[in-house]
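[step 3/7] inverse_fold.run input=structure_tokens len=499
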């Protein structure tokens, strides 16, 4: 009775989920090389104008213009449209003002949006402008609704450029070309189920993804039981010899035996990419406190603490390095800093002195930060790392070495990774380590042994994805054959299971 129930369950779920799993595995291969199109910070930055110190006011004059409740943390200066602008606050609450006037920037109208569109692709002519009053495939996320109506600019040329600009904020929301859109249809859209009709409803999309993973994992579990049972019943005919004579059953059984576990782990890790760790298994997850922060807002100096005039910093870097496009008021453990970005590099200056002096994190700074982190109340151990471990490593970018691993002897078993280039330490606690293995470890094989051998990583990931696709494809064929048999079967006949 239980076997019949598992067979029915495996088949019914296979009817619904094999196509989805096949789509996920094939699109996963594409996702290795192509993601969903987006406007990168580099693209935005490349189109900004150069900062000129002529006419820039003192920082005291700027802060005197601001409303009394304005937060000066997160302060920056850039020149997006030929007129320098100061930015205050963060993404939750921000204020933008022109450097040479009290006016809040910018006054958004169609003329400004069109100017930005022409400036974005100066070598191409705008051929058509659509006014979108609902989301489309390339801006499918629900938070874009607050930007409606949205102007969609089409450009001439074989590249097929399309630019989306908010009519409310004037922000560049999306920029795509024909190649990116084509690859997205084979990669990110099916892999993340980024179909607009579903993705614009965040709750509906989340529930769809959750239940697809739940049912998919149960389908795999039922398949494991049935596959092992078949091998066990047929054990006298040979080790791991499939008992099925029909080719599609046989290949589904064989591929499922070897790759079914990876189908299960990818469904599990896909679920873990969105969901928190289950509290019934891992306990309640505690919020990370301020101990995690290497340079928290409470340590941030006020603009008056910056001894070096920002205009002198811009002028000095313009002469020695290149044209400055952005200045950020930053700090490290309370030391005031300027971070100046040119077209090719980022320069960090010590703003606590009145001369232009590059800032470098030293071991002295680093150990002071560690001492500040623990506040002499938590026992800890510091280990210098000259090679990566399974947590301080990334396949997408090279992390600086040496690094300093700070292991705290507390309930959460917090571990921090400091290096001499990053202002913020990398942090893991017990739940964070589980989350890393259940998502990055299982889903992208972000494992030290493989990451350090990129050719081997590529071979392994392709093999597993193609194996999972083979399991899913044979399941699709069997599901189609099963449906055909159901429709061909006389209505008066009794239901039988023919394996």
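[step 3/7] decode complete -> sequence:
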């Amino acid at each position: 009775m239980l076997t019949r129930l598992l067979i029915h369950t495996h088949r019914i779920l296979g009817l619904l989920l094999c196509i989805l799993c096949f789509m996920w595995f094939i699109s996963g291969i594409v996702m290795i090389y192509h993601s969903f199109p987006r406007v990168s910070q580099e693209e935005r930055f490349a189109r900004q104008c150069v900062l000129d110190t002529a006419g820039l006011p003192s920082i005291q004059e700027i802060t005197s213009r601001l409303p009394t409740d304005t937060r000066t943390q997160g302060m920056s200066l850039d020149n997006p449209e030929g007129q320098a602008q100061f930015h205050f606050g963060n993404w939750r609450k921000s204020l933008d003002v022109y450097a040479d006037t009290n006016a809040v920037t910018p006054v958004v109208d169609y003329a400004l949006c069109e100017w930005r569109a022409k400036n974005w692709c100066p070598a191409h002519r705008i051929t058509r402008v659509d006014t979108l009053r609902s989301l489309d495939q390339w801006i499918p996320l629900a938070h874009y609704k607050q930007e409606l109506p949205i102007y969609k600019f089409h450009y001439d040329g074989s590249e097929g450029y399309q630019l989306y600009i908010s009519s409310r904020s004037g922000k560049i929301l999306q920029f795509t070309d024909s190649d990116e859109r084509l690859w997205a249809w084979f990669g990110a859209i099916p892999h993340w189920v980024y179909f607009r009709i579903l993705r614009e409803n965040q709750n509906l999309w989340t529930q769809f993804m959750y239940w697809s993973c739940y049912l998919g994992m149960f389908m795999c579990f039922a398949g494991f039981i049935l596959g092992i049972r078949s091998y066990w019943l047929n054990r006298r005919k040979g080790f791991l010899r499939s008992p099925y004579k029909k080719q599609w059953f046989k290949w589904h059984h064989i591929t499922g035996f070897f790759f079914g576990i990876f189908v299960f782990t990818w469904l599990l890790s896909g679920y873990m990419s969105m969901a928190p760790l289950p509290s019934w298994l891992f306990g309640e997850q505690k919020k990370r406190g301020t101990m995690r922060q290497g340079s928290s807002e409470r340590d941030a100096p006020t603009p008056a603490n910056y001894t070096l005039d920002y205009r002198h910093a811009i002028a000095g870097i313009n002469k020695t390095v290149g044209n400055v496009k952005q200045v950020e008021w930053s700090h490290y453990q309370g030391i005031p800093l300027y971070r100046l970005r040119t077209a090719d590099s980022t320069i960090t200056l010590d703003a606590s002195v009145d001369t232009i002096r590059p800032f470098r994190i030293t071991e002295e700074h680093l150990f002071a930060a560690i001492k500040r982190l623990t506040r002499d109340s938590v026992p800890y151990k510091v280990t210098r790392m000259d090679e990566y471990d399974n947590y301080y490593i990334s396949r997408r970018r090279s992390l600086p070495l040496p690094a300093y691993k700070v292991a705290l002897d507390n309930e959460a078993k917090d571990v921090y990774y400091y290096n001499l280039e990053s202002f913020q330490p990398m942090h893991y606690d017990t739940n964070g380590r589980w989350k890393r293995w259940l998502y990055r470890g299982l889903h992208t094989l972000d494992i030290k042994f493989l990451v350090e051998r990129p050719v081997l990583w590529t071979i392994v990931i392709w093999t597993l994805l193609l194996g999972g696709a083979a399991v899913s494809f044979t399941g699709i064929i069997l599901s189609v054959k099963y449906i055909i048999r159901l429709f061909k079967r006389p209505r008066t006949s009794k239901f039988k299971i023919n394996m």
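[step 4/7] annotate
Residues 109-176 form one domain.
The radius of gyration is 28 Å.
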